[in-house]
Automatic annotation (TrEMBL):
This is Glycosyl transferase family 1 domain-containing protein. InterPro entries: Glyco_trans_1, Glyco_trans_4_5. Keywords: Glycosyltransferase, Membrane, Transferase, Transmembrane, Transmembrane helix. Signal peptide: none annotated. It comes from the Eukaryota. The keyword Secreted does not apply. One of its GO terms (molecular function) is glycosyltransferase activity. It comes from Aquilegia coerulea (Rocky mountain columbine). The chain crosses the membrane at residues 17-38.
Length: 469
């Protein structure tokens, strides 16, 4: 897949929404919509060790005072790549949080394509404007910064490759001030080549408890290494996303616009799965469940609004075979007029404004965190999710949504849950409200910032005591 073209499509798409939004509100509000990530985990509260979860009780506000101790600290952020995917965008958010409290922030990207890339260019530009220094990953400046820094954040398991390649004999000197932020959970990331230094860093930060446990198991059993002090840190929604989610006028305009473009009427009920299209994200099983729910409704002669499904995240350049399978399925079942496909986009807010229910159908071990889940909840949407991974830490079964098993055995339970929400409007709306309350309580940017600040404090403390040894 050419990232290049994704970037351009994204920009074109964004412009269209921007125009619509400009009519109703200011540019600053409109910039909002851009953010959101597909995969990857989130941060929201921190847990130390295994249990000892730190509850979130702080009042909602714009202040990020909890990070004040980072003022004038030198922080090096090492990103394994720079693109519009979850991992790098999260690290950028951290960069901006740190800048906002006056930290000195240096960014390096370990893997860059040799040809110029529009997306990289615009992201680096965005960082420079906000006072983040960008250095080449293999430059002497990068090495010097690593040696001088108060803190180094390595982002993703794969970023571990940077350590030996660039620091060489200085690696051991630097490890005690490294915080390793991990967002992956697929088997191929458990490679010695990536993670051999993991036991010796000051700390690791992982987006959910489930994924943290998985990393502890896998590193011990497969690699025979021990994780350092590891913190589970849930992600939070940005202020920008919350602004749209809480603006009823903007939401109505976006809702009408998206529905019209899909051919869905206001009174119809719209289910969406918003994830890059791939087998791991379970679009195939969702469509089977959707079809099954239509059959159930027909068989039981239930009175429900006309039901539609939209699959946001289509990419015919990348997943052609799988996508053809999806498209063949809907033709075979004659539900083409009920199922819609939308190209992959980072601009998820318009879709969240337009739909009635979010489906989170990630398979296997599920999502590491699944940021779209908290974004949907911010829009007061109930979530039908697989009982796997981070989803189980976000969705409260029966309260903010309903969980079904991953795999083929989840198809019928999901179909029944779809029927439940289609037939019980009141229940659907209540679940949406509960989800919103849960987000306000624990999945906001300031919650994430607070939890991260606890981790950074400990890591700095450790690095300092190490220096004094
Ligand atoms: C980790 O291993 C323990 C036992 O060794 C097991 O009970 C637990 O379910 C495993 N956790 C994960 C996430 O695989
Ligand atoms: C969606 O992507 C396909 C192929 O990647 C492209 O041909 C099509 O024009 C895109 N549709 C929109 C509305 O951008
Ligand atoms: C979710 O709750 C329903 C009942 O409300 C229950 O039947 C189902 O087993 C629960 N699923 C999980 C994964 O806890």
């Amino acid at each position: 897949m050419a990232k290049h073209s994704v970037g351009w499509r994204w920009i074109a798409f964004h412009k269209r929404w921007l125009l619509i939004l400009l009519v109703i509100f200011s540019i600053s509000t409109a910039i909002i919509i851009i953010r959101a990530a597909f995969d990857s985990c989130d941060r929201h509260y921190v847990e130390e060790g295994n249990n000892n979860r730190v509850p979130i009780s702080s009042p909602i506000g714009n202040n990020l005072q909890s990070l004040d101790f980072m003022k004038s600290k030198l922080v090096l952020l090492v990103s394994h790549e720079l693109s519009l995917s979850g991992g790098p965008l999260l690290l950028m958010e951290l960069a901006f949080l740190l800048r906002s409290v006056g930290a000195q922030v240096v960014w390096v990207t370990n893997q860059k394509p040799t040809e110029t890339d529009e997306v990289i260019y615009s992201l680096e530009h965005k960082m420079l404007i906000r006072g983040v220094q960008v250095h080449s990953a293999k430059s002497q400046e990068a090495v010097d910064t690593a040696l001088k820094a108060d803190l180094i954040v390595l982002n993703t398991a794969v970023a571990g490759k940077w350590l030996d390649a660039v620091l060489k004999e200085d690696v051991t000197q630097v490890l005690p001030k490294v915080l390793w932020w991990i967002h992956e959970m697929r088997g191929h990331y458990f490679k010695m080549e990536y993670v051999k230094h993991l036991p010796f860093v000051a700390g690791a930060m992982i987006d959910s408890h489930t994924t943290t446990e998985y990393w502890k198991n896998r590193t011990r059993e497969r690699l025979g290494i021990k994780m350092p002090q590891t913190y589970a840190v849930h992600l939070g929604n940005s202020k920008e996303l919350m602004e749209v989610a809480e603006d009823s006028v903007a939401k109505r305009v976006l809702r009408e616009h998206v529905r019209e473009s899909l051919g869905v009427r206001n009174e119809d009920i719209l289910f969406a799965i918003i994830n890059s299209v791939s087998r791991g994200k379970g679009q195939d099983l969702f469509l089977r469940a959707f079809y099954e729910s239509l059959e159930l409704i027909k068989d039981q002669k239930l009175q429900v609004p006309l039901m539609h499904a939209v699959v946001v995240g289509s990419d015919m350049n990348a997943q052609t075979k799988f996508e053809m399978e999806l498209r063949n399925f809907i033709v075979e079942k004659k539900i083409q007029d009920r199922v819609h496909f939308v190209n992959k986009t980072l601009t998820v807010a318009p879709y969240l404004a337009a739909i009635d229910v979010l489906i989170q159908n990630s398979q296997g071990r599920g999502e590491c965190f699944g940021r779209i889940t908290i974004e949907a909840m911010a829009f007061q949407l109930p979530v039908l999710g697989t009982a796997a991974g981070g989803t189980t830490e976000i969705v409260v079964n029966g309260s903010t949504g309903l969980l079904h098993p991953a795999g083929k055995e989840g198809v019928t339970p999901l179909a029944k849950n779809i029927v439940k929400l289609a037939t019980h409007v009141e229940r659907r709306l209540t679940m949406g409200k509960k989800g919103y309350e849960r987000v306000k309580e624990r999945f906001m940017e300031q919650h994430m910032a607070e939890r991260i600040s606890l981790v950074l404090k400990e890591v700095l403390q450790k690095a300092k005591s190490h220096r004094h040894l």
